[in-house]
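Notes from hallway chat w/ T.B., transcribed later so I don't forget. T.B. wanted the structure written out for a chain they're using in a teaching module, and asked if we could keep both sequence and structure tokens in one place. Agreed to drop them here.
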Amino acid sequence: MPRRQLHVTGAAEAPLRPALHDLRTRLDVPETFPAAVLADAERAAAAPRLPDEDATAVPFFTVDPPTSVDLDQAMHLSRRTGGGFRVRYAIADVAAYVTPSGPLDTEAHRRVTTLYFPDGKIPLHPAALSEGAASLLPDQTCPAVLWTIDLDVDGRAERTDVRRALVRSRAKLDYDGVQRAIDAGTAEEPLALLADIGRLREQLEVERGGISLNVPEQEVTEKDGRYELGFRAPLPADGWNAQISLLTGMAAAELMIASGTGILRTLPIAPDGAVGRLHHTAKALGIEWPHHVPYARLVRSLDPREPRHAAFLQECTTLLRGAGYTAFGGGGAATGEGVPELTTHAAVAAPYAHCTAPLRRLVDRYAAELCLAACAGVEPPEWALAALPVLPQEMAEGTRRANSVERSCVDIVEAALLKDRVGEVFDGVVVDVKEHEPTVGTVQLTEPAVVARIEAAASSGAGGLPLGERLRVRLTQADPGLAKVLFAPA
């Protein structure tokens, strides 16, 4: 789900490296791969298990950030005879390279996810696979899990097929280029249909009450010896591309539920108190939110290019807390018997599964295997069933570490941005107050784009922090080494 992403460019990166190194050490991040794992990856890259079906004639393309080389997904979109659309979505087949219980598999279970730092990433799999043989790079023939999803004229899924096949991407596209080509009307039909299908799927998302947060990405740059922090607002093409992944994740959930064995990404509905806090934040940011307007409708009315809206969208990510993984079936007592009571993801407003990023997330390899078996009407392989009882806990621990990396990186970058401005006064908004410590909370600055801790002196007699109100605040601490930024009411 959406996260605040950080990208550090230029000379701004160098001063952060000691603090980022300390963070990796503190979180016990496994930076290097053992020699046995690297050797296993080289062997696997040279001799993967290849499928019988050949889909290399289909001109797939990828849409990713321009510098990405770990490409999990490639797509081809077309119109169906008689109306509707066909989505072909090829997902990197990591299971074609990884031997169950082998060195690569064991290491992947230790790492769980790829970790992203401002100055680089710690990958789930060695580069020989994640950036080489298993990546859906252009003009490279790769084994893939090929999803074919037929949609009606309104974009609703009518039929899903999943099978292994060889694929060959023809083009590596980026979001800016895709947006320009579609806006200019120069995109060929397979790419132009991304907008058509994406908009239809977005409308269906509105109808079912789902929410896609267009959360801006934080970007840190260095200019004239000072750090600058701003937001990159997502393009419509970002959202259309995400809809293809969501469509596939929903189809995967339906297949697994129907088969009685699977692992879902679930999220309960947010409590009223969390939504109430967002009402305070909206008021403080000058965003009109009538009580009769549903949260999902308000979010869709916001423009992430507008700073106040971007700030509010970032705070909306708090409603995504509590997401987890729910495994079921497979004959193991730890997974329970039958389909669980909670199968939906509140933000998707439908059953949903992670299955489209196996190069970067452990669970996706298993979800794909269960879907392949469900579609073929056969029992899943024993190695996939055996992992189900422990996968939710493994993913929970890996996700917690990824979240800790994200939060700490944000703190480090913001501290570096502000380290020479201690004592200065800023305009801010109190967006959170601790329930049992009303003098401690979170302040969001108007400029620069910083969200940090605020503490009011308990002896001041001023009472608690004014939740949802604008406040002049003084920066009292900014230490990249401690990954700490602290404000006090001015």
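Follow-up for T.B.: Residues 391-418 form the longest helix (28 residues). Might be a good example for the class.
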